[in-house]
Amino acid sequence: MADRLTQLQDAVNSVSFLKNEANYFFIAFIEYAQLFAALIARTAKDIDVLIDSLPSEESTATLQAANLYRLEEENHEAAARLEEVVCRGDLLLEKIQSALADIAQSQLKTRSGTRSQPLPE
């Protein structure tokens, strides 16, 4: 959370800096007004995102524990689904390997059968 607060403070400071510098630059370079307005708007949007990402007052230890429990349950369900998919994949792999072995055997039999026959003259 300290990182988010630091980011929030930096964003607020940058808006303040941009606002203060805009007054100076506005006098000297009027064409930079749009650039400063865009920078201030983007930084304000970043501030809103950072504020929204901060934990709310409702975020108590009990709620966090409940969320962690729910996430753990979802993780177990996903792990079970993954195991099922891996098992099905292993079965499919065995079938494919068996089919490839049958094809290879058939090709060997076909080749050996054509060699044993005398060539036409």
TrEMBL record:
Any one Gene Ontology cellular component term annotated for this protein: mediator complex
Highest classification ranks of the organism: Eukaryota, Metazoa, Chordata, Craniata, Vertebrata
Record text on subunit structure and interactions: Component of the Mediator complex.
Keywords from the named record: Activator, Nucleus, Transcription, Transcription regulation
Keyword DNA repair among record annotations: no
One BP annotation, GO: regulation of transcription by RNA polymerase II
GO molecular function: transcription coregulator activity
Subcellular location as annotated: Nucleus
Gene3D superfamilies with a match to the protein in the record: Mediator complex, subunit Med21 (6.10.280.10)
One Pfam assignment: Med21
SUPFAM superfamilies (alphabetical): Mediator hinge subcomplex-like
PANTHER family tied to this protein: MEDIATOR OF RNA POLYMERASE II TRANSCRIPTION SUBUNIT 21, RNA POLYMERASE II HOLOENZYME COMPONENT SRB7
Role, per record: Component of the Mediator complex, a coactivator involved in the regulated transcription of nearly all RNA polymerase II-dependent genes. Mediator functions as a bridge to convey information from gene-specific regulatory proteins to the basal RNA polymerase II transcription machinery. Mediator is recruited to promoters by direct interactions with regulatory proteins and serves as a scaffold for the assembly of a functional preinitiation complex with RNA polymerase II and the general transcription factors.
Family of the protein in this entry: Belongs to the Mediator complex subunit 21 family.
Principal localisation: nucleus
Name assigned to this protein: Mediator of RNA polymerase II transcription subunit 21
